Amino acid sequence: MTIARWLGRLGLPALAFLALGACRNEPPQVLGTLEYDRITLPAPAAERIVTVEVREGQRVAPGQALLQLDPTRTRAELAAAMAQATQQRERLAELQAGPRREDIAQARANLAAAQAQARDAQAYYRRLLPLQGGDYVAASELDRARAAVGSATGQVRAARAALDELLHGTRPEQVAQTRAALAATQAQVAAQRVLLDKLRIVAPRAGRVDSLPYKLGDQAPVGAPVAILLSGDAPYARIYVPESRRAAVHVGDAVDVYLGTRARPYRGRVRMIRSEPSFTPYYALTGEDAERLSYLAEVALGRDAADLPAGLPVRAEFRGAAR
């Protein structure tokens, strides 16, 4: 029987039904996986883990303690920085207050003593001068007397300069330098306090503990992740939109997300789609899309998907769109 005779026997209604079935468009589908926002909490210092307060898979609230690193060394460094700050603060107060009256009085007394010694040296030298023509005084003795006068005069100048320094007070440059040193030390104190707080690893957001790579007693290097959280009330679908369908997908579009062979979809909406394309990952290669670029998109799901684990493969259908 030929195809034409077989179609003639079916009749017009059957032909119309077949034509409608052939023209019916199904909503386009894309593939992807379920994901959560991952929060990685690194080790702020190379310290030993002394307390583990959560377990993997446990739900945590914002600010809840997860781990505690050994704070002994950081506390000692904080105490040293605080002591140095106290020293700089007292030094600044001393400079701002200026010299003490007792120091000024001592400088005046030193000047008076130096002046008395200078007068005595000059008087001795003057007594020796008339005797230098004869053999009454040796030339070496006269030279020593002259040198004593010069030394005493220099001591008078030094004592007067020391007194003037005290009377003029502290130089503004010294005050500024000490104030800057104090500010630097106070910044060190603040940094040590921040580091001490960071040694208590807490959850920045609500979520679920996905992984604790290091155990009690381990010492993780600086920057190594000591806790990984999955945040969010529900996962989102990370899907790859083919280039041929990119123009029809917008933020806010309704999407039905299917998990495996599940008949009932999870309702969601597109919350993000990248503007730059990337190559389609291997698990999303389907038919003619295998050689095309795709655009990464994220579909936010409702609370009915809250218990779904991350990493499950999904397929998404854009409601109201045609292939």
Automatic annotation (TrEMBL):
Its main location: other. Signal peptide: none annotated. InterPro entries: HH_YbhG-like, UPF0194_transport. Residues 75-124 form a coiled coil. It is found in: Cell envelope. SUPFAM superfamilies: HlyD-like secretion proteins. Keywords: Coiled coil. Residues 75-194 form the YbhG-like alpha-helical hairpin domain. Gene3D superfamilies: 2.40.30.170, 2.40.50.100, Helix hairpin bin. This is HlyD family efflux transporter periplasmic adaptor subunit. It comes from Fulvimonas yonginensis.
